[in-house]
Specification:
Chain lengths: ~375, ~180, ~110
């Protein structure tokens, strides 16, 4: 589906006969954005505090609700009720636009994230390219917000963040490109479908196991995406010990809340894309979820697709949860890099290694006619 | 008017309005932000025209790259919090005159073309990302390589130019 | 009203962008302002390529990707231009403490 088709379809569905589809897509957008991204971002802040407490042998939030589960709710209400202060010399127009730009960049990318075969906001042809394109709004929002708040710590943080994000987009792009090269498609649903457990001609299993080059490129993707979301060890933009709070120092109330939430939503988004690109999305070993046939009926139709979809969402989200846990684990384990180390890591290590692996993956595709390691070793069996 | 028409109209209006801010706003940082939105609206027009790949490339290269570099340049030159242009009214009159003459000529040309040159009534928007990739390794392989060579040379040149030379002293206050 | 498939609409939008770019490039007394005008001009040209490929009857017979390819080449060349132009701006600023184009009249720093 192209963007133009998406627009014209949406209308024919309003005026014509396929009302349920537009209802479905609006519902999907609402579910994905308001009922998924926002609360999960909130829960992530709770988890972050709980996990950090665990790593530091503290208890962490435990007052609001059972084991402090409702803490993020209390935090959210506090954010809303705080007075919204702006610096006297702040540039109010840009100051107001900037958090919205960051949020738009983080949330917009979710439109193309495939949670299950039919649960996707917009099944775009250019899926993964769209995700990266919309994500590039974040660096702009951070830089503008930092400049407009009239504070030298903000400005330092903003300039650092923008330089870091622009640099790390290159290794990120190279790693994504190697997956696109192997799969021959940018459509995320197609990419996930290709990673089914091998049976007959179809399926290559997870791309991280497709060939050694992709395995290394996953780690490049992961490191680069940590830097893209300004997570430790790459949180120079908000280095508390040097820059107070970095680019969001002057922001308060819900504006600060948007920045903080956007960071978590970015993490979730990059983990979702990592799962879709490298860990087979909703595919699991040995079984093909689309083969589940129960024969149960619901509303007079077969319940199979519903059950399959629920399984797919469950599998997808559990993989995402594991990756998010690893991101938090890294945050509370590693120290922060220096600026020169940050740039050296990107330009001297990640980019050359990524390019080498890109060429390596291309040669692998030529040598083995697109077959992955799993198929070549033949664990999967069903090749006859 | 269907949804796609409304979207095209809004994108066009937004592109034009923000572009006029780029040309006339006294604050250079606002002009840069307006340029961002103008380029995003043009990306919207690309999407309406069925050129998805170009729309995404426009976003990723302009918004994620060029605009950030422009903002850097604005912030590193001049006084960082006084981003006013050195404009004066005398200088804008001549460009305005040239611009309006040019615009009248262009509109006349477009009006003439609209009646005489046949257009497609019901265009089919086919996905282009696949054909673009094919073209880059077949009939457009040479331009593609050539552009990448120019890109490499340009990047090396930019690094050489921007690298500070500590031997020369800055001229204080210009000439 | 059929705007999305109306070639004149795109041509007029691109003509306005072009003219505004020309005005910005001529009137700004700031190198970065001139550079932003040039970006508008390049965008107007790229938009024309894509619109004409889809909507002009003669151009519609060429391969589907041609308009997009021209636009992509323009975008890439604009990126190169940005890198070089802004390097020059920073260099000139380091030497002259100003990026007023009228002060860049001397060829030898």
């Amino acid at each position: 589906m192209s963007l133009a088709e998406l627009l014209s379809d949406a209308f024919t569905n309003v005026s014509g006969y396929q009302m349920p589809f537009i209802v479905f897509s609006i519902l999907a957008a609402v579910v994905v954005i308001l009922l998924f991204a926002m609360p999960v971002g909130g829960i992530c802040t709770y988890l972050e505090r709980k996990i950090s407490a665990d790593f530091q042998e503290r208890i962490g939030p435990n007052r609001v609700g059972p084991i402090g589960l409702l803490q993020f709710f209390a935090d959210g209400i506090k954010m809303f009720l705080k007075e919204d202060i702006a610096n006297k010399n702040a540039d109010l127009i840009i100051y107001n636009i900037a958090p919205a730009l960051v949020m738009a960049g983080s949330l917009g990318a979710f439109a193309a994230v495939p949670f299950a075969k039919y649960v996707i906001g917009a099944n775009l042809d250019i899926g993964v390219f769209y995700v990266m394109a919309v994500g590039s709004l974040v660096s702009l929002g951070i830089l503008l917000g930092a400049w407009s708040s009239d504070n030298k710590w903000s400005l330092m943080g903003g300039v650092r963040a923008a330089a870091q994000i622009v640099s790390y987009e290159i290794p990120l792009g190279i790693a994504v490109l190697s997956v696109v090269l192997v799969s021959g498609s940018m459509n995320l649903v197609d990419i996930v479908d290709m990673q089914a457990w091998p049976s007959g001609e179809a399926g290559h299993f997870w791309f991280i196991f497709h060939n050694p080059f992709l395995t290394i490129n996953f780690f490049i993707y992961f490191i680069a995406s940590l830097a893209e979301c300004n997570r430790t060890p790459f949180d120079l933009a908000e280095a508390e010990s040097e820059l107070v709070s970095g680019f969001n120092t002057e922001f308060s109330g819900m504006r600060f809340g948007l920045y903080a939430l956007a960071e978590f939503i970015d993490v979730i988004m990059f983990c979702c894309v990592a799962v879709a690109l490298f860990f087979g999305g909703w595919n699991i070993p040995f079984i093909n979820l689309t083969d589940i046939q129960t024969g149960w009926r619901i509303f007079g139709g077969s319940a199979d697709i519903l059950i399959q979809t629920l399984f797919m969402i469950g599998v997808f989200l559990s993989k995402v949860a594991v990756l998010i846990f690893i991101v938090m684990w890294i945050r509370w384990t590693l120290p922060r890099l220096r600026v020169d180390q940050l740039m050296a890591l990107c330009w001297k290590y990640l980019i050359p290694i990524g390019l080498f692996n890109l060429v390596g993956a291309a040669i692998w595709m030529l040598l083995f006619h697109g077959r992955g390691l799993i198929e070549i070793i033949g664990i999967a069996g069903g090749h006859h | 008017m269907s949804l796609i028409d409304i979207f095209a109209l809004l994108s066009g209006i937004a592109a034009v309005l923000t572009a006029s801010l780029v040309a006339f706003h006294p604050n250079i940082l606002y002009a840069a932000v307006a340029l961002t939105f103008s380029l995003m609206s043009v990306a919207g027009l690309y999407a309406v025209l069925g050129a998805d790949f170009v729309a995404a490339a426009q976003l990723i290269i302009y918004v994620g790259g060029i605009i950030v570099v422009i903002l850097f340049a604005i912030m590193m030159s001049e006084n960082i919090y006084r981003t006013r242009f050195l404009d004066n009214a005398r200088k804008i009159l001549l460009p305005l005159g040239i611009g309006s003459v040019l615009f009248v000529l262009l509109v006349k040309l477009i009006a003439k073309a609209a009646v005489s040159i046949p257009v497609v009534k019901d265009p089919i928007r086919v996905p282009v990302s696949g054909p673009i990739g094919e073209a880059f390794i077949h009939q457009y392989a040479l331009p593609f390589e050539y552009v990448s060579l120019v890109l490499l040379i340009g990047l090396i040149g930019a690094v050489v130019i921007a690298r500070p030379n500590y031997h020369e002293k800055p001229e204080r206050g210009g000439e | 009203m059929n705007i999305a498939n109306n070639l004149s609409f795109y041509l007029i939008v691109s003509a306005v962008l072009f003219v505004l770019g020309v005005i910005a490039a001529l009137s700004r007394r700031n190198t970065i302002g001139i550079f932003m005008g040039v970006e508008l001009i390049l965008n107007a040209a790229a938009l024309n390529f894509v619109a004409v490929r889809l909507l002009n009857q003669k151009a519609a017979q060429s391969p589907v990707q041609d308009g997009s390819l021209f636009a992509l080449f323009i975008i890439v060349l604009a990126a190169i231009e940005a890198a070089v132009a802004l390097a020059i701006v920073l260099r000139v600023f380091a030497m002259k403490r100003s990026i007023d184009p009228d002060k860049m009249a001397r060829l030898k720093g």
